[in-house]
Amino acid sequence: MKRCALAFGTLFSLFTLTSAFATPQEDETRAFFTRFVEAQNAHDLKQIKAMLWDSPKMLWFARGEASWGPDAVVSKLKEYYKGTWQLQPNMSHFSVVMVNDEVAQLMVPVAFTRGHPGEPAQVDTFLISQTLLKGKDGWHVASILPVADTHFK
Question: Would you identify the CATH topology of the domain 22-147?
């Protein structure tokens, strides 16, 4: 019984140390994504814009519509923020692939609580795919693509 408890404790410790085997870049991208979500939940458009890739090719595809460039993305978010907009990522399913030292592809299920002004909010979960680029001043979001099927394996 003691061996079983010890084995369980060891196994539990390994699973709870989410970044125990992560590279520094993976840890950086996880921290960056967490700050990006915090900025969205605070409806901090200035901070969000600073975290987006400063390029007309920066893409956010949502609700069947492409928003190109950080100004268009911030404009769209400004409209969404008139209603309800909160994100709750399931970080236990956060996954990142380092394409190279300066490009990361991440995926994470996110529960969106959203609603138009004056209407009841609804919660929908999407698998969010983001491409991050690392420049001289850190990571930036190059693309955001929601996927309706959240059964990421």
Answer: Nuclear Transport Factor 2; Chain: A, (3.10.450)
